[in-house]
Prior knowledge:
2 copies of one chain form a homodimer.
Chain A: E1 2-8, E2 11-18, E3 21-25, E4 27-32, E5 49-52, H1 53-58, H2 60-69, H3 71-74, E6 81-84, H4 87-93, H5 100-109, E7 114-116, H6 128-151, E8 157-159, H7 168-181, E9 186-188, H8 192-196, H9 200-211, E10 220-222, H10 231-236, E11 241-244, H11 246-252, E12 255-258, E13 261-264, H12 276-280, H13 283-288, H14 291-319, H15 322-329, H16 334-343, H17 347-353, E14 362-363, H18 373-384, E15 390-394, H19 401-404, E16 412-415, E17 426-432, E18 436-439, E19 451-452, H20 459-473, E20 478-482, H21 483-489, H22 509-521, H23 525-529, E21 534-538, E22 545-550, E23 553-558, E24 565-567, H24 569-578, E25 585-588, H25 593-597, E26 602-603, E27 607-610, E28 619-623, E29 629-635, H26 639-644, E30 649-656
Parallel strand pairs in A: 4-5, 4-11, 5-6, 7-8, 9-10, 10-11, 14-19, 15-17, 15-20, 25-28
Antiparallel strand pairs in A: 1-2, 2-3, 12-13, 16-20, 17-18, 21-22, 22-23, 23-24, 25-27, 26-30, 28-29, 29-30
Helix pairs in contact in A: 6-7, 7-9, 9-16, 11-14, 17-18
Amino acid sequence: MFEIKAKDNRARVGVLKTKHGNVTTPALMPVIHPGRQTIDVAKHGATIVITNSYIIYKDKELKEKALADGVHKLINFDGPLMTDSGSFQLSVYGDIDISNTEVIDFQEAIGTDIGTSLDIPTAPYVTRQKAEEDLEITLERSKEAVQYKKDHNIEMLLNSVVQGSTFTDLREKCAKELRQLDADLYPIGAIVPLMEMYKYSDLVDVVMHSITNLPDNVPRHLMGAGHPMIFALCVAMGCDLFDSAAYVLYAEDDRLLSTRGTYKLENLTEMPCSCEVCSKYTPDDLRAMDKKERVKLIAQHNLAVSLGEIRTIRQAINDGDLMELVEERCRAHPALLDGLRKLGEYSDDLEYYNPSTKNSAFFYTGPESLQRAEIRRHIKKLREMDKKSTLILAPPTRKPYSKNISGKLGRFYVYGEELELDLEDSDMMVLDLPFGLIPLDIDEVYPLSQNDAPKIKDADSVEFIEDCIEEFAEYYNQILIHQSIVNHYDFDLERIHPQSDEIRYIKDDIRKIKTIADYQFGIGSGDALFDGKVKIEKSKKTGKIRHISVDGNLVANMRASDAFLVLTKEGGKKLHQATTYPHNRVVVNQDSEPFTRDGKSVFCQFVVEMDENIRPGDEVLIVNENDDLLAIGKALLNSCEIESFNNGQAIKTRKGFKK
Amino acid sequence: MFEIKAKDNRARVGVLKTKHGNVTTPALMPVIHPGRQTIDVAKHGATIVITNSYIIYKDKELKEKALADGVHKLINFDGPLMTDSGSFQLSVYGDIDISNTEVIDFQEAIGTDIGTSLDIPTAPYVTRQKAEEDLEITLERSKEAVQYKKDHNIEMLLNSVVQGSTFTDLREKCAKELRQLDADLYPIGAIVPLMEMYKYSDLVDVVMHSITNLPDNVPRHLMGAGHPMIFALCVAMGCDLFDSAAYVLYAEDDRLLSTRGTYKLENLTEMPCSCEVCSKYTPDDLRAMDKKERVKLIAQHNLAVSLGEIRTIRQAINDGDLMELVEERCRAHPALLDGLRKLGEYSDDLEYYNPSTKNSAFFYTGPESLQRAEIRRHIKKLREMDKKSTLILAPPTRKPYSKNISGKLGRFYVYGEELELDLEDSDMMVLDLPFGLIPLDIDEVYPLSQNDAPKIKDADSVEFIEDCIEEFAEYYNQILIHQSIVNHYDFDLERIHPQSDEIRYIKDDIRKIKTIADYQFGIGSGDALFDGKVKIEKSKKTGKIRHISVDGNLVANMRASDAFLVLTKEGGKKLHQATTYPHNRVVVNQDSEPFTRDGKSVFCQFVVEMDENIRPGDEVLIVNENDDLLAIGKALLNSCEIESFNNGQAIKTRKGFKK
Lengths: 659, 659
């Protein structure tokens, strides 16, 4: 029903399958008002729409037509179609005259692709008692609906809405209970007031507490979120669907949507956008039109901007630079920036979902970038690495540092205790933004060279650098810091190490590949993989390491784009022998063993369990339940995701070990 | 020839007048390749274009046609048209076969609206000697061209290009010498390599050192700058014209422009934009087309995006939120962010050009916002204000603070020395971001209430707050800081002031209007304006002060939107009497005195001199050379600008004193 095609942080490009065709997500569903629609949203690029079943139900003529010809014909849209129940009306008017099962029956009867049960949208900031009582009913109705669907062989996909007001523990509870239901989609409800109040920080809490407790194999719909300003942030949190009545409602109010906020037509001297409407008309043109024509054109603008933003977001996920987009979009309003900063508190969760390698460079765009998954992951990995006695901190050069570092480095200051220096017993790292400490042996590994940051530093960056030094000083007996760093950061150090002249970066390819292996697969992997007579072949053109053989057997290739090791079968065997279950392993069931050995890719439903530390993009060992090595491959998802999916590729197998 | 219509920092919306009509600036001039153009740029919104006179000159057929029918007909564009000389060809090929005066003659002969002399584009980072030698020739030719134009009654407007490579003192020297020439437009040349190398920080230095030495009454053209990613930043520095060959060149290379950077078609899965082309086609559609058709569509996209961005920028200047746009756009690349941070070093210059009041709120978007003109200006003004003995720092509430501050404030900690507290001899300020210290008496004045910042603070903001306290502690005998501030910022204070219970904000309207007057017009203005029996009328609806009378005469109105005082004639007289020349004064010449007294607006050419501290938007006194008060009004420009213009409104007169 749903498949993930590309990932970036918690965001995913997915495909949602319905009776009326497939939809690529993230997607925006324009709201179609049955009987009142004037704009052909499909013509403007909409691939899925939403309409309100209760409005159809309440209008005799619409109801008859929908029951006779189907809802698709009624609203003249041939693609995937979602209907809402009367929940919104319920929240506004307090009462409606249809039951939960009736509204499900009706939606199925009119041929909806995705229907919704009758939840209770609980406003933000209500009393705890009110939120709990409402949630009770919402959960009951969701359970009833799912059961009803099963009992009555209802075909349509079913939404089960997460509620709980602004109580994050209630959102969590709701998500956990709904998770048990195996619903087809999980909307997150009643967040519109938060957006209207610009409470984006609370929105982030509500969404994150919902999504982190929902399964990964089901699309999440941020109900009522139709302003393009917030799409990027919400996609980064894992939202897949949005709906927009805003494109029409704002147009009726002479307001133009933009990723930067909202423009009132009355204040415009220019059409501030590149869409067709903004290119062809001036604000005066629009103001001179009669209302109907104007509303249609503004709605067309609003739709173009909203759908354009959704496409921009999908492209960013594919490119791996969604966070750069999010950080840009969140400058539209200080409250959005607050939301982004709040999201920083969920970095560890985002990190877990974030691929280990990407097509794009990491761009530092401000203090918020320091919270990003890539930096958190690097520092965490660095903590785990083996440490020598002395840490030598070299200044940044052009990247890759290890290629451009000079032979004679100059003077080094002593941070803390001064000891005799043994260069062989020292780790040499470059101190730079945004990754803090970059060991020269692994500096070509993604994203340690594939990044950029401004030269003029903000205070958070300086604090980050200072924190790195302070933390890592604990792990070493001696820290030596290059004079240019001391000057640049204005460190209060006085003693120059007497052996400064001896300090240089000694290139050692074998140490380098072992360090990369440890960084990539865990401590000890380097010694295990490269345990005999190592031969290293380099690219004649770039000088980069390409192939690594041990005792005449090719063990690994080094990928040029990100310097990660791609194991050969021989390498897989060595890593497998040297490490114990569950490290780097994905365990598949018995049935799939022959296919896996044959080199066929591993689908989610075949995975029994796996190393929780595997990230999307990681090179992995595929084993059976006896820990026999079946194949080597690349993980496409993390363990949570693989566990939750019953279909779709989990591991792209590189080579199988035939029996 | 050029007039300013709206301002924001150094940016201006202007009108450039040419034989073929007026152009609103900032404007983008698409480059038209004579004889090879396939896209009708006017249809897509271009209002001015640029073409190359040397290419026309070198092609026999084009040359004949241009001489016979004019260049407008040749390239089929009826509006304002600029031509470049052969400078670019000179820089590429090293030599060209036309002289400086010949190329001017030729451009005039083919009917160009704006022509260019033959400068030497000196690349960045050349030797000083090379830059100096080239500059010598460039200056000579500019002088020759201007003289030639005068001598031969040449009608076309003339560009004189600022060169000097990356030597900021040479750019400065060049700009200063060109300034003497009274050329019609000042392009800034040879910056394309800087953009190609992503040296935006150096670009900012080059542009700022050029522009700050050019007159304000002449448009500046950033030659060869055609990527929409950098338009906003460059407009903020005072650039008025851009030209784009990029829209075609990038299209020919299957690259799509965006304010976020450049997309390669081969990497696209989505059309990442809301323009007509991106709404109608998919990347696969484009890839399947034949090259000619594809290039045309991509060029159309590139043009739509570029022209859309120019309109967005003009709208932002009109709205007064250009810096928010700049700060957003500069997230596209860390090197652009570096450029923005570099621009922070020129804050005092931007402040001088920045209006004193705007239609939009100040949005904090990151540490760079702390460098903005509004904050610099406020802190500078605050330094000048009269100080009492004790400074009391209250925590922020909802804005306006003075309305929402509670009666009982709670405990205050002593920062520094503890003294006995006299509430009457205390200044009470709110400590908040982004404006640091906000005296409660002036908190409604723009932008002290009209602003927003994220609640989660970055380290620069915390440092800014700490710096504010540290600096202002010097001006007071005692500082008391509210406990919630101490907790929030984790200040290391221990003593609670024993009189904490007495501390509250005592509203006093007369003190308030006097403080606002001092803040607005300078110390002592409050006592001068409100020196008798003061009567204050408030809005029944909002409770805000509206009218202020003294001894029965209306002296000032308080503007609801920004709480600035707008003086009546009576108020003008009082301020005039109490202050001495040149404070708050604009001096007009004898000829214009009758018109000014009559209430007619003051044009730039009538202004003899003025208070250098007047900012655009300030309320001013208009006097004659004997310092007789002629009228009161509002400055539309700053003194530099008024001095440089020979036409256009300088002061919008409110009331004149008839003789």
